[in-house]
Amino acid sequence: MIIAVDGPAAAGKGTIARALARHYGYHFLDTGSLYRMVGLAALRAGGAPIASSTAIAAARKLDPQDFADAELRNEQVGGAASVVAAIPEVRAALLELQRSFARKSPGAVLDGRDIGTVVCPDADAKLFITARAEVRARRRQTELGAADYEAVLADIRARDERDSRRTAAPLLAAPDAVTLDTSEMDIAAAIAAAVRAVEARRTGF
Ligand code: DC
User: Fold this and answer.
1) Is the pLDDT at 47 greater than 90, yes or no?
2) Half-sphere exposure of 120 toward its Cβ, with a 13 Å CA cutoff?
3) Does residue 132 have a pLDDT over 80?
4) How far is the CA of 189 from the centre of ligand 1 (A)?
5) 32 lines ligand 1 (CB under 6 A)
6) In this structure, how many other beta carbons lie within 10 angstroms of the beta carbon of residue 189?
7) What is the DSSP letter of 172?
8) How close is the Cα of 196 to the center of ligand 1, in Å?
């Protein structure tokens, strides 16, 4: 059983995907962290602007140990992840790792941008989690304890733009995905809606 959870930055997909994995007893992979690891490695190797060759080399020798790096979650690394994610060779280098994770028994939940469209087009259930940019910026501001809301909003918009407009596996809802707009939902309501959507797919109702 594979559950694909896609959507833009700060829409709540990580929280929802983790909760689904707990609910069903499945494995969970935050695929954004893979791109963040590549972005962080590229920043450390040479800073801005990021060289494609550095990012490709980092993706090809990704070390899952780096998953624990505290810097992975910061916004600069999120921006770098979004830049390296547009490089087709980086995406290709990370593809098999994600697919083999998805095959884990008894099931797996993967969250990202292209899980339902490219990584696991045959996923059993696909969710596309979204929310208005202003709402996502407010949530991200709270999460980061950031002072400048306008700067966070600008960053979210820039990331949406880059993730949606790239030619390699852009951020896109799969035609068979259930879209959940969490703008007016709290966490509990969003999780409940996601479980209902997956159950509907599993049982065919
Ligand atoms: O979900 P996140 O903010 O941790 O993702 C960081 C960046 O990685 C995001 O801006 C786009 C990229 N990404 C991607 O292109 N494909 C995925 N499956 C996951 C993330």
Assistant:
1) no
2) 31
3) yes
4) 24
5) yes
6) 12
7) -
8) 25
